Amino acid sequence: MIRLLKKMRKQEWLMAAFCALFVLGQIYFDLKLPDYMSRLTVLIKTPGSTMGDILETGVQMLGCTLASAGLAVFCGFLSAKVAAGFSYVVREDVFRKVADFGQKEMLEFSVPSLINRTTNDITQIQMLVSMGLQIMIKAPVMAVWAILKIIDKSVTLSAITAAFVVVLLTVMILVVVIVLPRVKRVQKLTDDINLVARENLTGIQVVHAFHAEEYQNQKFDRANNILMNTQLFNQRAFAVLMPVVNFVMNTLALTIYWVGAMLVQKVPATDTMQRLTDFSNIVVFGTYATYVVMSLMMLVMILMFLPAAQVSAQRINEVLDKEIMLHQGEKAEAKERGTVEFQDVSFHYPSSGKDILKHISFKAEKGQTIAFIGATGSGKTTLVGLAARFYDATAGRVLVDGVDIKDYSFDALYDRIGYVTQKAVLFAGDIQENVLFGESRAPRTKETVEQALRLSMAEEFVQKLEGGVKAPIAQGGSNVSGGQKQRLSIARALARKPEILIFDDSFSALDYKTDAALRAGLSRELQGTTCMIVAQRIGTIRNADKIIVLENGEIAGMGTHEELLRECSVYREIAESQLSPEEIEQQLAAGKGDK
Fold first, then answer.
1. Which run of H or E residues covers position 240?
2. Residue from 369, 370, 360, 380 nearest 536 by CA
3. How far apart are the C-alpha atoms of 31 and 191, rounded to whole Å?
4. In what order do the strands lie in the sheet with 403-404?
5. φ and ψ at 489, to 5 degrees?
6. Which residues pair with 418 in a beta bridge?
7. What pLDDT is stored for residue 556 in this prediction?
8. What is the rounded CA–CA span in Å between residue 108 and residue 353?
9. E strand or H helix at 558, and its extent?
C-alpha cells in the first residue's frame, strides 16, 4: 500500500497536508467542548452565576461545534480530491503497463483479472484513501489527546478506561486475523465471477443457439454462491465489531459514572466545592473516555476496508512489478528492405516445455508472397506471430530486413509490418479511426483511408453507409458483418503502407469472388510489398511464390503449388480434400506447360 501511495503527485500531497491540518483543527475544537461543559456545570451549580455567563459559555460551545463542522467539510472535499487524483495516477500506470504486456503476460493474468484490477481493486484503495485521510489521522490523535487530558484526573478511572480499551483492541485484532485470508480469497473469486460473466456475454449467441441458458445460469450460480458465502462470513465477522464497540462504550460510561459517584460520595457533605469539582471532573472524564472509544470506533470503520484495500494493493503491485519479457532494441535502420528470414527457429510457449515449432528455416525476399498451410494446430499462427514479435523464439533467430527483430525498437519494427489477425478486431469509433488506428510512418490523410478501403474491397459497402468513412463502429464491430469486419481489418494494415504484410488466415470470412478480387488487387498494386499469408484454402495461396507446408510444427514441404502437388504428400492430401481430381491434374499439367 505504501508503495502505491508514493505515486501521489505533489498537488495531492499538498492537499493531504492541508487535510491533516484541518483534522487537527477538528480535534482541537472537539476536545474543547468537554472543558466548556465542565465550566457550564460549575456555573449552573454555583450560587450567584449570571445568565450572561452561561450564555457566553454556550456561544463558545456553539462556535467550537461550527468550527469543527466547517473544517470537516473542507477536509472531506480535499480528501475526495486526493483519493480521486491518486486513483487516476495508479489507474493510468496500470493501463500503460498492461498495454506493454505480451502474450505471455496476458495469459498469466487473464483478461477478466486485469479488468478487475484496473477497476474494482483501484476503487477499493480510493475508498480507503478518502476515508483514511480523515479517520486514520483523527482516530489515533484524538485518542492520545483525550488520554493525555484525563490521565491526571483519576488513576482509578484511567485504569478502568485502559482495561476496556485493551479488551476492544483484542477483539479488533482477532477479527482482522480471521477475516484477512478470506478477503484475499474474495478478490480471486471476483475474478472468477468476471470470467464467467464475460464468457457468457461474449458467447451469448452460442448460448441461445444451443439453448444453454440454464447451464450457464448454473455455472454462474456455483461461482456466485462461493463468493456469497465467503463474503457472508467476512461481513458477519465485521458485524460483531460495531455491537462490541457500542457495548464497550456504554459499559465504560456506566462504569465511570458509577465509580465516579462512589468517589463523590466519599467527599464530606460539608465540602460543597470539592464535591462540585469532583462531579465536574467525572463528567469531563466520561466525555473524554467516550472520545477514546469513539476513536477506536472510527478505526473499526477503517478495518472494514483495510484488508480488502491491502489485498487490492498487492494485486495492483503484481501487475506493476511484472517483468515484461519482450524488450525493445535500439536499431531503426537496416540495409535490406522487405525481407523476412527464419534461421533454425524453434519455439515453445512459456507454460509448456514442448516445442510448437521445430527448426524452421526459410527466407522471404522483397515483394515475394510466402504462404503457410497445414492442419489445425500445426503452428501456422505461432510462426507468423514470431515474425510480428508477439513472442521471442526459444531457439534460432528471426530477421526482418536482415536485422534480428530483438534489436529493433518497437517503433522501427512495427512501422515495417502490417498485421491482420486471425480474428478480426475493431474498436468503438468510426471507420476512419479504425483504418488509421495506431501510429505509423504513413500519412494520416483521407487519401490513405480511401486507398486502403479500395484495396481491401471495403470501399463499396462503406460508401453505402450513412456517413461513409465517418460511419460509427460499435464496440467489437458488432454492427458490421464478419466479412465487412475482416475487410476493414485488412484496410487497417494496408493504411500503414508497410514493407511486410502478414495475413493470419484473414480471408476466411470472405466469399471466393471477393477473396480472389482482393488478392488480385494486392498483387497488382503492392508489387514491392512482401506478403506472408496463413490460409486454409488452396485457392487463396496457389499463386504464392513459395508455399510452406507445416505438420506438427515442422516443415513438411516447401515450394510452388505445382511442386508441392507432385512432391509433398501432406500438401497433396489437403489439395485432394478441396479440389477434384480433374482440377488437380489440370493444375499439374499447367505447371509442366509453364516449365
1. helix 213-265
2. 380
3. 46
4. 357-364, 340-347, 395-400, 403-404
5. -65, -40
6. 501
7. 92
8. 16
9. strand 554-559
C-alpha cell at 398: 528471426
Cβ pair 122, 94 in contact under 8 A: yes
Beta strands in 411-552 (DSSP E): 417-420, 429-430, 472-473, 500-504, 530-534, 546-551
Residue 567: partners with Cβ closer than 8 Å, 6 or more residues away: 557, 559
Burial of 486 (0-12, 13-18, 19+ CB in 10 A): buried
Q: 477 burial class (0-12, 13-18, 19+ CB within 10 angstroms)?
A: buried
* d(C-alpha 400, C-alpha 414), whole Å: 11
Which residue is listed with cell 503476460? 105
Q: Can you tell me the distance from the alpha carbon of 112 to that of 188, in angstroms, rounded to the nearest whole number? A: 11
The whole-angstrom separation of Cα 474 and Cα 460 is 20
To 10 degrees, the CA torsion angle through 120, 124, 125, 127? 130
82-85 long-range contacts, Cβ below 8 Å, gap at least 24? 82/8, 82/12, 82/15, 82/16, 82/19, 82/129, 82/130, 82/133, 83/126, 83/127, 83/129, 83/130, 83/133, 84/126, 85/8, 85/9, 85/11, 85/12, 85/15
The set of residues, in sequence order, having a beta carbon less than 8 Å from that of 23 and lying 6+ positions away, is: 71, 75, 133, 134, 137, 138, 141
What does DSSP say about strands 500-504 and 530-534: parallel, antiparallel, or unpaired?
parallel
Residues 6 or more apart in contact with residue 412 via CB below 8 angstroms: 331, 332, 333
Residue linked to cell 475544537: 29
Please report, to the nearest 10 degrees, the dihedral formed by the alpha carbons of residues 505, 511, 517, 521 taken in order: -30
Model confidence pLDDT, tens digit, residues 50-66: 788 888 888 888 998 89
The beta strands (E) that lie in 351-428 are given as: 357-364, 369-374, 395-400, 403-404, 417-420
Mean pLDDT is lowest, of 8-17, 284-293, 312-321, 444-453, for: 284-293
Higher pLDDT, 485 or 153: 485
The predicted pLDDT at position 269 comes to 66
pLDDT at 595 over 50: no
Contact residues for 110 (Cβ-Cβ < 8 A; gap 6+): 191, 195
Residue type, 44: I
Least confident of 134-143, 303-312, 417-426: 303-312
Q: Which residue has the cell 484495500?
A: 309
What cell does 422 get?
Answer: 486471425
